[in-house]
Specification:
By secondary structure, this protein is of the alpha+beta class. It has 34 helices and 33 strands. The strands form 6 sheets. It has a 9-stranded mixed sheet, with helices on both faces. Strands 17-16-26-25-24-23-22-21-20 form a 9-stranded antiparallel sheet, sandwiched between helices. Helix 4 packs across helix 5 and helix 28 packs parallel to helix 33.
Length: 1019
Amino acid sequence: MVKLKKPAVANIPRDKLRERRRRLRLRKGYDQRRVVYSNDPTENSRVNYVTNYLRTTKYTLWNFLFKNLYEQLKRVANIFFIVIAIISLTPVSPIAPGPGVATVIIVLAVSAIKEAVEDYKRYRSDREVNNRTVKAVRAGSNRAERILWSDVKVGDILKVKEGEEIPADLFLISSADLSGRSHIQTANLDGETNLKMRTALPETRENRTFEQLSALRIEVDCEEPNPELYEYEGTLSVGDEELPVGSDQLLLRGSRLANTKWVYGLVIYTGRQTKFVLNMADPPYKNSNVEKVTNRLIIGVLFLLLAMCLLSAILGAVWDDTSGKDHTYIDLPSGDSVVVVIIQRFFTFLILYNNMIPISLYVSIEMVRIMQAYFLNEDRLMYDPATESRMIPRTSNLNEELGQVSFIFSDKTGTLTANEMVFRCGHIGGTVYGEVPDLAEEYRRLDEAIDAEVDVKAEDVSTSKSQGLMYNQPGHTEFGSEMLETALEAGGDAAGNLRDFFVNMAVNHTVMPVIKNDRLIYQASSPDEEALLEGAAAAGVVLRSRDNDILTVDVFDEAGLQFQVLQVNHFTSERKRMSVVARFPDGSLRLLAKGADQTMLPLLGEDPATLDAAVTDMENFASNGLRTLVVAERVLTEEEHAAWVEQYYRPASISTTNRGQLLVEAAAQIESGLRLVGVTGVEDKLQRGVPDTIATLLRAGIRIWVLTGDKKETAENIADACNLLAGAERLVLDHATKAETEAQLAAWEDAWDAEEDYALIVNGRTLTFCLEPDVELDFLEVARRCVSVVIARAAPIQKRQVVELVQREMGEISLAVGDGANDVPMIQAAEIGVGIRGKEGMQAALSSDYSIGQFRFLKRLLLVHGHWNYKRIAFLVCYFFYKNFVISFIPFWFAIDNHFSGQPFFDAWLRRGYNVLFTALPIFSVAVLEQDVNDLGLLKFPQLYRDGQRNVSFSKSRIIKWLTFGVLDSAILYYFTRLTVYANGYAFDTTGQTPGLFIWGTLAFTCMVWLGNFRLAIH
């Protein structure tokens, strides 16, 4: 650990030293930071830190009634029916208020009870978490005391044991390991199951007993709470010394201690300010297209209802004023003006016709969606045995939209591919070692074998020249070369190049080797690093152990060589490379670097011939579908290294502001003039069933765009292996200037052949020009005509911009699918986001609307469940409006006969039971279970999916047809029952009594229920 000494201040009292530091922070603009003191509750209490009590409930016992009512009033339909219930309490209501009020209460109560049950489950979960206990070392206590998680405060020192979950964000003080090492599992945070190492600073790791910890006086100056899981900057003050601290010393709440007996940590962030809780934000709320149309339809029907009420009120008032005076037996009220009568009658007819707005529609849609989500979750054909995971609908609002997707935007790595990296070959010292595979042909053969139900098994267990523990897991390397063995036996420059190449792979990383069941396993943060270490091990360079900065490596026949890693320049998505400064066993210093070619090639100091040969082989690797990394090194003198550390690295590492950017700039100062060591070729295996899935989705009329950060050649090869480019003429857009890009787009538009299928391939630098405001529409015009699009070297923000551009300009429903954190912006921007639970963590799955285990499940999710759900919900909404038009227009026909007097036709309880009792179950069953075509038929004929894309089942013409049916059926029912009951003035029974209004209304109601269910059956 490099320490930066400060001038001695031993004679300055501690409180004055604190005040001096506080003023210094204010002067430097660091006032937005926090300082945490150990064993000093008085100082910590000066800031009103949040407690560690965690509450995820939406309501409290006191605000539930009012807050839930407020949430429900956000729906216009609910406001409408509450107004109707209030009007029914007034004298203008033609019916008793009981049924109307009861119905509104029931509907609101059902939603409230659902919310209450869900919130109570959250409350129970919160209570269980808050009541967990942990040991704490607190000032003034003579022993460690066990306290509740909810009582943990900033500044407490906690003891966490192996297997326990960490209750707050902790600064690591010490651990059971004398070197201060500890391991945590962060599966709850990011889904990654590999262990991550955290290391205590030498200045604190000796504090291991209660006496030492209770007397410990340290200050941690750190940034304010933020949701960045992998970023943390701070400064540790121990006496007169200040030391940089980072994410290597931070134990996050929600992670679990593993392979370490215990740790002590200082509480930095608590409760809702922990990084875990700050990352618990829900994905953005999304509404389906069907629901949006339904909302507009309700507004339109509402205006129709108001118009009918106004027309009926006016006609009734006019008749009263003109002809009503001649019918003295009616005993009409006198003295009221026509305007007053119109107003009174308006509200009367509003009560009579209000069934036109379906009060139970939203509740029915919610219940149907819940059942649809249940069937999605229970579909065994979307169960992934590899991850032991089901399909998880994280929202049910978009179930029907799954049947209307026109565009799919997909990541490549981990989405189309399995994120199972296999080291296949390498360019080393001008020679290619290993076999360069034709992955497209291999994938085609494998897919044909799967289709023919041939059991294809591959065993790939490599052995090492080194003795001792087995080092590799099957499937992570297929590297083997007789040339390599020959070169090693011959010695000379070739053997030296091989040694430099594989030592770089074995030392330049952040992997932790662990022993499980007498096997050496590499716990890597990415599959790429694991594959490279497995490849090095297959060649005979085996990483055996890691003790802080000391790596023990077997290098061919030399066992137990120790390399000391002095500084690490970490990989970031912007740098696209990483490097380490390492001291070799012979005492020399070397900078070892590896990274993407676009960032590494400019840093090389090679002669053109050597560089051209490497680039040629690298392009060959990429064109055959392999991921490539450039491996390089630089020999450093002691003076060069010391100057770099003193001038750049040390100031950046102890900076309390903008440390990350300063470290990037420091790394750039030393990562130059590198010597090319080699190029790696790593295969990312294609997921099973991907080619068939893509071919089927293309037949369904879905256009698929692949957006990846990989090289253009790699992306094109994988797309070809996936059947994405099959039979299409390829248009490549790869230009260095905006003018060239515009010219190429214009040329394609002028020469377009509508009879030809095209596939567009775009490189990242050109995509920048394509997304500029004055070019984006030309780019989209070309892209939308293509059956598929492949975009390489795309940054996460560019993926989001592409999705937003297509949705904004095309107006069609899009779906984005990915598996990594870099796919989250694209997933959240798309109307439907699908996350794959892969090896890059759970960020994509947790941010998505639906999560699946494999890309191939998209075929069943869209073509089967999407089709069914769209048809069901569309039919549900149309049928609801149909049957409500029937019950609303019958009173209108009756009003014509009674001169719009406002006389009710149906019994009040029958009216209210119509939607929630007499017609509820049949349509609910249909909306949950109906299959217009079974799943095998939908998969065999994917063209059936295009009905949803064209919105056939919920088009304007289909909606108007159902509303027309409602009006016609109401007229038929009314006049048919009228004719039946009063035909020829016949008596109704043997007593000579004619039927009354109740008999007529009940007969009409019964016929209406039968007719509604009959029409439901025939449709």
